[in-house]
Structures are given as structure tokens and as C-alpha cells.
Amino acid sequence: xxxxxxxxxxxxxxxxxxxxxxxxxxxxxxxxxxxxxxxxxxxxxxxxxxxxxxxxxxxxxxxxxxxxxxxxxxxxxxxxxxxxxxxxxxxxxxxxxxxxxxxxxxxxxxxxxxxxxxxxxxxxxxxxxxxxxxxxxxxxxxxxxxxxxxxxxxxxxxxxxxxxxxxxxxxxxxxxxxxxxxxxxxxxxxxxxxxxxxxxxxxxxxxxxxxxxxxxxxxxxxxxxxxxxxxxxxxxxxxxxxxxxxxxxxxxxxxxxxxxxxxxxxxxxxxxxxxxxxxxxxxxxxxxxxxxxxxxxxxxxxxxxxxxxxxxxxxxxxxxxxxxxxxxxxxxxxxxxxxxxxxxxxxxxxxxxxxxxxxxxxxxxxxxxxxxxxxxxxxxxxxxxxxxxxxxxxxxxxxxxxxxxxxxxxxxxxxxxxxxxxxxxxxxxxxxxxxxxxxxxxxxxxxxxxxxxxxxxxxxxxxxxxxxxxxxxxxxxxxxxxxx
Length: 484
Fold this sequence. Notes:
Blueprint (H helix, E strand, L loop, with lengths): L2 H15 L5 H15 L12 H4 L2 H8 L4 H6 L15 E4 L2 H14 L11 E5 L5 E7 L3 E5 L10 E5 L12 H4 L4 E5 L6 H9 L6 E5 L4 E6 L7 E5 L6 E6 L7 E5 L4 E6 L22 E5 L14 H7 L5 E5 H8 L15 E6 L4 H11 L7 E6 L30 E5 L4 H11 L8 E4 L4 E6 L8 E5 L5 H4 L9
Parallel strand pairs: 1-2, 4-6, 5-8, 6-7, 7-9, 8-10, 9-11, 10-12, 11-13, 13-14, 14-15, 15-16, 16-17, 17-18
Antiparallel strand pairs: 2-3, 3-4, 18-19, 19-20
Helix pairs in contact: 1-4, 6-8
């Protein structure tokens, strides 16, 4: 295709796509174009797909005229389109210049000035290393290093403390305020760049760190605005260190991978032991949302996790919780006295187990007696989840609760991963002993049932009876931690 043909096609598509709103129109147009092009042939009689003939820079230009939501969804069209929406701009530089160039890009960015709708930047910083920068509405920034060469070298990621950029620093906060940052596949090579960027982003409220190979320590400093911290699939991570002051108000902590140690340092000048580790029996946070998805098992510390007592105290008041059975038996039970009245505010629980045997069910029943306000219970059987260390676990029969609890508010139990319906019935039957209300039992395919006796006299075996329910999504929506 000649340059004049490409230019003409770009002009025609740009005018048309700039008027589109929903992604369905984009897909319909592409489908129509492909269908029409199937009728076009080259000199050899072969079918021609002119859309696929366009280079990436032209496709990125076309995408840049779309509304943000539609641009993101073009990643579903094919593998080639997956990252195109992030590559509206391409720039080459060095890792030393990266922080300044990215901040300049953000400082110039404004979603309110059309047609300047370039939410993506592909930054190439040498030796096959690539940073994909994507800006979403409501102040969300994605920094993704997964497309380029990765370094297996172990490293520490220090975030929050002010770092100067080697040249003039733009005033980021004047034109664009970032609230949320997502870091993907940060490595030893890019850690200084990321630390510099984050230290120059004020007002950050949410931080997500995912799939960072070689990451051993996360150190958070000097950010009193941070409210949500999420760490996903960083399997070499050993510890998280948080330096906080009296204004620090973390209310959400979500972690998936191996168990890590937690160390907290109080930097408030009024604190007697300034910049010293907080007493392990004290809680620096009051979490409302906690995900402790440690299916990968213990980390380098084994089950003797430094700082776990303070984390346990931090989750006493959670409303939403994800927990693995082995974590409860190996880590929480030995420190049960720290829970006081139990999880007295917990309304949604996602319980992850490696089996559905009687011993597993006994652990769940014991835990549920600590949750008097529970509304929804999600149970997932994952055979690949780490199993509890029975040699170190405390026997459940040896522990007596002062106030045995019946669940008065439980509305629904959702089941996933069970081998068959007989296993589901067995678990539901065992759970009945603490159900004061009769909850609906929901399979992951959306089938709604009640557990009941199969004969009219009520003396035979138990079985499920299907029940029609309106507004099922409102009754039992997907657990908030399941889409991470």
C-alpha cells in the first residue's frame, strides 16, 4: 500500500472513528471492513485485509480518537490489538531520562482537551527494555514493564521518599492529579526509575504492585495519603516495611502469593520510639478490607512470620476478608487471644481450602463461630493450595470459645471447586449446625438451591432442591477479591 493510500485511509477512518462512542460500533465497523475487504483481491487473486496491512503507528493514531473505555476494549479484538491502546505515543530514551519524560507526558496530559486523547506511551529505554504507560480516567496510572526484557536479579523497592530528578522537574500536580498507581513487572533495572516517579506523585491513595520477579522487599515511606495497598504474585517477596505517621490511614490490604513478614515503623515525632519497629502486639492500622490469599504457602520465614501479630490485630475489624484454611490453623489459632471478640464486623468471607474433608470443614466451622455478623460466605476448593502443617497446628478440640455463635444473618453460601454434588451436600450438612437462618446454597454456575431432607417425613438423607431467585446478583455478587 502506498503512502498516499495509507494517508487517505487514515483520514477516512479518523473522521469516522472520532464520532463513535461504544466499542460495539468500532467492532461492527472493523467487521464490516474486513468483510468488504474479503471481496478485494490482489493481482494474484489473494484476498486482501487492508486493516491488517496498516502499521501500528496508524492503528494507534486511529485508536487515539476513541473515548477511553472504547480504546481499552479494542484490546479484545485480537492479540495484535492487545497493547495498541497503550502505544498512542512512542519515545526512545534512557532509564536515567525515563522519570523526567514520563512526568512530562503526564504533566501535558489532560482528558478534557480534545482531540488530545493520547492515554498511552511506549517508552523504549535501551537493550530491549520497554515501559508501557497508560493513563485511565479518575487519575489511574499503569506502568507496565512486562513487554520488554526482564532482569532476574533480586532487589528492594523503596517508594515514597522524595527523590530529585536529574534535570528540571515538571509540576505534575498543577494539571493532573493521580490517585491510583499500578506497577507491573518492575525489575532491578527499573526500580530506581519507579522509585523516582512515585516520589514525585503526591496525593497517591491506591498502590498495586504485581508480578515483579526478584522483588524481595517493599519499603513504603512518607506517604500519609495511601489508603489501599495491593501486592499480587510477587513470589520472591519476603517483607513489607511501612513507615507511617499519625495521619496514615491504610484501610485496605490485599496480598496474593506467599506469606510475607510485616514491619511497621512509626515516624511520628511524638512517638517515643521514633523510627523504631512497632511492638508486635500493637496494631498500626484499622483495616476494613483484607485479602490474605497465601495459597502459595509460607515464605522464607516458614510459619514464624515477623510482624504477623500486628497484622492479625489490624484485621479484627475487617468487613471483607479472604483467608486460606492453613493460615487460620497455622498462624491465627496460636494467637487467637489477640482477636478479642472475634471478627465482629465481618460480613463477607472468601474461604480457600485445599480439600473438602471433615477436618477442613471443622476448621471452617470453628472460624465461622468468630463471625457473628457474616452475610455471605464464599468457599473455594483449590487442590493446589498449600496444606496445613498438622505437626504444628493446634487441635481445634482443645480450644473452647466463651460465646459460641450461631450465624443469624447469613443469606448465601457460594461453592466453587467441589468434585461433585455429594461433596457439596456433605459440607452444607456439616455447616447447618451453626446456621440459625437457612441460607441459599449457590453453585458457581449460578444454580440456587436449598438443603433439605429428600423425603416428606424429614428423616431421610439430605439433598438440594433448586429454587428460583430474582436479583441473584444483589443477593450474592461476586466477591470483590476474585477479579484481581
